[in-house]
Amino acid sequence: MNRIRTVPHTHPVMQGVRAFCWAMGIAGIAATTAWTATDRLPHRSAPTHLEAPAGATERTLAAVAYGECRSCSPRGRRWVMHTIRNRLEDGRWGRTLEAVAWQDAQYSALNPTDPNLRKAAQAAISEGDPLFLTILDEARDVMGEPDPTGGATHYYATSIRPPYWARALTRIATVSGHVFLREEG
Fold first, then answer.
1. Nearest residue to 158 via CA among 180, 132, 135
2. What CA–CA distance (Å, rounded) separates 74 from 118?
3. Does residue 69 contact residue 178 with C-beta atoms inside 8 Å?
4. Which of 56, 65, 66 is nearest to 26 (CA)?
5. Using H for helix, E for strand and C for coil, what is the string for the chain?
6. Contact 138, 74 (CB under 8 A)
7. pLDDT at 12
8. Comparing 165 with 102, which gets the higher pLDDT?
9. Angle between helices 74-90 and 56-69 (to 10 degrees)
10. If you placed Cys at 62, which of 27, 31, 136, 181 could pair as Cys (CB 3.0 to 4.6 Å)?
């Protein structure tokens, strides 16, 4: 059961969530993801469609990669971004890239309590972070290039014990400190 916690609007978590949405140009996500005027953390009940302005798709990919794997190689970041694109193409995770990325507990960098959410939002807002700008260029490439991952829809860091859900998936490769997997059938 998902819980919604009330957090003051001045709380750093809420500032990070708001800043991220503002930076991505997807302020309308608030209504779609069950945020309320009382400043509750998002319930994120798996929205299937989010309207995003032009350029938001690449910015969302870049922000997720920045939050999830900014210290990885360019190849590793592209593979992470391809998992989002592969989920979009599969269709079970949402009809837009933004909906896929914001699925509850799928990409930890977008979880409201993850410190990487705030870092990604700040990088996206400043437009002065050279690494974010590099990742943004990579995200634009990912949207138009063939999938190098063999259909990977999941990954986890090699620094952690394999998650329980990894047992049911087929391992594809280890790239830049992440194990990439896909579902069969």
1. 180
2. 22
3. yes
4. 56
5. CCCCCECCCCCHHHHHHHHHHHHHCCCCHHHHCCCCCCCECCCCCCCCCCCCCCCHHHHHHHHHHHHHHCCCCHHHHHHHHHHHHHHHHHCCCCCCHHHHHCCCCCCHHHCCCCHHHHHHHHHHHHCCCHHHHHHHHHHHHHHHCCCCCCCCCEEEECCCCCCHHHHHCEEEEEECCEEEEECCC
6. yes
7. 46
8. 165
9. 130
10. 136
Amino acid in position 149: T
Amino acid (one-letter) located at 42: P
Enumerate the domain spans of the chain: 12-148
- Sheet containing 178-182: give its strands across: 154-157, 178-182, 170-175
Q: What is the pTM of this model?
A: 0.73
CA distance 33 to 45: 6
pLDDT at 76 over 50: yes
The tokens for 115 are 């410190």
Say which residue, 128 or 126, is predicted with more confidence: 128
